[in-house]
Amino acid sequence: MVSRSTLRIAWRNLGRNRKRTILALSAIAVGQLAFLSVAALMRGFGEQYLDSITGPMVGHIQIHAPRWRDDRSIDVTLRHVSATIAEVLQDPDVERASPRIYAPALAALEVEGFMSVVVGIDPAAESHPRGLVPGEHLSGQLGEHRVLVGAALAQKQTIEPGMEIAIVGQDVDGSIANDLFTVSGVIPSAIDIVHSQGIVMSLEDAQELFLMPDQAHEIVIHLSNPDRIGDVVARLSSLPLLRDAEVLPWQEILPQFVSILKLMEGYIFVVLFIVFLAAAAGIANTMLMSTFERTHEFGMLLSLGCGPGRLSRIIATEALLLGLAGVSIGTALGVGLVALTSGSGIDYAALGGSASSYEAAFAGITMSSHTFPKTYVSDVAVGVIAVLLTSLLSVTWPVLHIVRLEPMEAMRS
Q: Which residues form the ABC3 transporter permease C-terminal domain (predicted)?
């Protein structure tokens, strides 16, 4: 326990050379400000990234028939989909369960055909902000042989609402599947398979077209609490209807994106290491200079009976006060800066000189140049603890110098 007199002496000593103390405080504060700013940007980007990964295309959990992911063969299906969905939705952590059918097909408006992918969905399950197709495009536009066409595909093939389109493919028995459908709308989508190739129809129409009664290729599940993915996977895997199915969390479906998230975490710690260096350089320089300048004073104190332990505590307390003051200023500035920008966000495109923000889509994942920084209490705590530990480490040399001092020799210096 540090006594009040030690705190008072240490605080006064920091004021002896105010310029040096201010420089050290500035180095620490700027380091903490930089760490919290970068960490907030990375946290905001990471949350946006994770939200996009677990968004419309992938979800938090996916259910497939075994081997379907290997070659996505149309005849490898989940059966008893209606009963399965009903059981899955009984889980308290499951928010939505969306059955889907994916089937390559040849489509034609007149004579010449073009390749497309039929996407069969349940409009009721997909009519939410994170559904595969935006909710406003689903109202009354699917079912009864009506389909929606991806915007890029429609533009390329000059498809407009009201046109009749023929779809030819292969059903689960290997026979020819074909029928006529009416285009009820053209939809833009961040999901590439929908935007550039997709012909979206109701699940019932797709099941009828490809002879898949009460079947689907995939069930995409969204949870109310993503932190409980492991528990939900375990519970769903034990359901009788799913014992022979693959029940996979998104981390196993897209392991490459898990690595990217880990890389983001690693980058935050690189910035934290820079904070360590800034704090160590500022505090060590201040304490070393202060110690060597006061060698004569320390010699007098030692000769008067003040022990090396007391002097060491004073030096360590000075370092801690310097670190605490600097990191407090940096934390206040960092949290304030994030608070100012968290509402409006930061647009990387605008910082780069672009007139507008942009979105990029890959493998069903959409990323925007507009990021909303977010401060984590854990990041603030880590920064503070890092600086305080650095403060203690930085006084090792000054303390060793004091311990080795001989009073008479020190008084002569």
A: 270-407
State which residues form the domain around 248. 61-252
- Residues 6 or more apart whose CB falls under 8 angstroms from that of 378 comprise none
pLDDT tens for each residue of 315-355: 778 778 888 888 899 899 988 988 888 777 776 656 655 65
271-311 per-position pLDDT tens digit? 777 767 766 666 666 666 666 666 656 666 666 566 666 77
What would the DSSP string read from start to end of 87-100? HHHTSTTEEEEEEE
| Global pTM value | 0.71
CA distance 407 to 413: 10
The pairing of beta strand 113-121 with beta strand 146-150: unpaired
Q: Could you tell me which residues come within 8 angstroms of residue 223 by beta carbon, excluding any fewer than 6 positions away?
A: 60, 61, 93, 94, 95, 229, 232
Q: How many domains does the chain have?
A: 2
HSE of 324, CA atoms in CB hemisphere, 13 A = 11
The mean per-residue pLDDT over the stretch 127-154 comes to: 81
Residue 143 backbone phi and psi in degrees, to 5: 95, 160
User: Quick one: 266 and 391 in the same domain?
Assistant: yes
Q: What six digits make up the tokens of 83?
A: 């009963």
User: Within 13 Å, how many C-alpha atoms sit on residue 253's CB side?
Assistant: 22
Asked whether 229 and 84 are in contact (CB, 8 A), the reply is no
Same-domain pairing of 189 and 154? yes
In angstroms, how far is the first alpha carbon of the chain from the final one?
32
